[in-house]
Amino acid sequence: MTRADSWRTRLKHWLLQADTAQAKQEGFYEQESAVHAQHHQHPWWKVMCLTGVDYFSTLGYQPGIAALAAGPLSPIATLVLVLVTLFGALPMYRRVARESPHGDGSISMLERLLSFWPSKVLVLSLIGFVATGFVITITLSAADAAAHMVENPFLHRLLDGWQMPITLALIALLGAVFLKGFNEAIGIAVALVMVYLAMNVIVVGKALQLVVAQPSLIGNWTHTLTTTYASPLALIGAALLVFPRLALGLSGFETGVVVMPLVKGDRSDTESNPRGRISNGKKLLTTAALIMSVMLIGSSFVTTLLIPPEQFQPGGEASGRALAYLAHERLGEVFGTAYDAITILILWFAGASAMAGLLNIVPRYLPRYGMAPDWARANRPLVLLFTGVCFLVTIAFRANVDAQAGAYATGVLALMTSAAIAVTLSCYRNGERGLGVAFTLISLIFVYTSVVTIAERPEGLYIALLFVAAILVVSIASRVVRATELRADRVELDHTAQYFLLQHGERPLRFIANHLDAGDTDEYRLKELEVRYDTHIPGGDPVLFLEVEVSDASAFSDVVDVQGVAVGQYQVLRARGASVPNTIAAFLLQVRDITGIPPHVYFEWDEDGPIKNALRFIVAGEGDIPPLTHEVLRQAEPDQKRRPVVHVGG
């Protein structure tokens, strides 16, 4: 082996190395059986800080984006946003926390409410929008952190014009940290959020003092509103029209339910009813929403009144950093620089939280669907992939904070709309008509907000659709490639089935594959005569019949349940599984393991064309069963002497 080959081998091993400890630390999801192990986890307010790294960090750019989008109407539009937060998003996600306390989030609610391929396609599409939100979180946070660095008076002369390189460098640093191994440290999140919120309270509090000390500021603002809008109703209508532009202030709720496995519950919590965790999860969501609501209203009010409108424009000193602008202007350069530093840190950490979220999506859904390539099981290739995507998005948006707001809002709103619909369907399914009507109205609000946002800023939809298309293409290709894996979690036989298998002594068992029709003795008698004639089964050898019912063809793997049924003198084994060829192969291997002798299975040729059969196999779990069964067996059992034998005739 040459040195180049050796280097490539080591690189491949490093990239594909599965670091289970790292994966465990970076992921929040859990199985229900793990709920007892979580009672020693963290108090809810500490986990809230982990959520707040993403949620509260939007204060770094939200006030500036709101002022740019709504102008003097910004505080009113922000008030509408807060009302939607407290009376729409919060009740909705409190319901999600109750129904999905194991870190599944709202996507799994829709997955459970729907079934078969529509469920899978919907989930994959939503993952595309989730990925959009996470990627834009990384790029937007990095761009805003770079803006805080470039506009800092001590660094401006040195870094002026370096917005793009600094943004790319921060993203590269994030990727490098995850390649090395990143632990989602709640301790760091608590420290960052506490300091960041405290400094924001100081900035907003000082700004409010200045506003109170200068009543003319409020007078000028109200005069602008009354001269622009003919009546209070016109003002409210304008605020309702413009508030969707502020929708990125709704981010953070999905993260709040995703991190629920980290929330300490009660010792009495059970797998099916972790009441303590659910209660504390609701406290987490409510407290975060209340804190953010107060900060959003306060920051929007003071930035609108104290900052000249031209400074919010692209290239202005308050663009993407409105509160930092006030910190420097009103509290001095030293405090302002300290504010810049903590803002840069929390924005970068928000990107880290988003990267961890991206790394959670793939192992949560795609492998279970059989829709992830082998290399996607390792974190490092995914980190490189996501980092590259973030580079492309940053370059496409020229590292501009305001330009990315629409794309970010699209991802956030798509997820919240789907969550609202999931909660609404859940209420109606549980007979809660009153709540169902209320959540229907909330769903309509989020649908309206999404439509307005997409109409005004369609680039977010374009990016999301690119993600959706990429995920669907990769997922379908992976599913096709992996279709001939065994795809059975285990095989379970009832007592009758076991009796049928063990009563024939040392002879190899011979199974005739049959499609169940009438299920009477005539069907099996005629089938046996036909197959014995076509495939030359020895006259004295007994046969059993094997029938397969497809349970859910969209599922990649499933438990194969086998029941033995006696129909007159005929012994019939009826199995249920995700796919006919894979189920037959799994059953035959189980028979081989039980009896110690490879069994034989007998088929008739299929009359459909190859393309139609291929589609039937992928979509319906059927298709040209004999060669597919043989291929599944060939891959599962390399030793031909131990492999069950497939016969085809007719």
TrEMBL record:
The keyword Transmembrane helix applies. This is Amino acid transporter. The chain crosses the membrane at residues 65-90, 121-142, 162-179, 186-213, 284-307, 341-362, 382-401, 407-428, 435-455, 461-481. Gene3D superfamilies: Amino acid/polyamine transporter I. It comes from Deinococcus maricopensis (strain DSM 21211 / LMG 22137 / NRRL B-23946 / LB-34). It comes from the Bacteria. Keywords: Membrane, Transmembrane, Transmembrane helix.
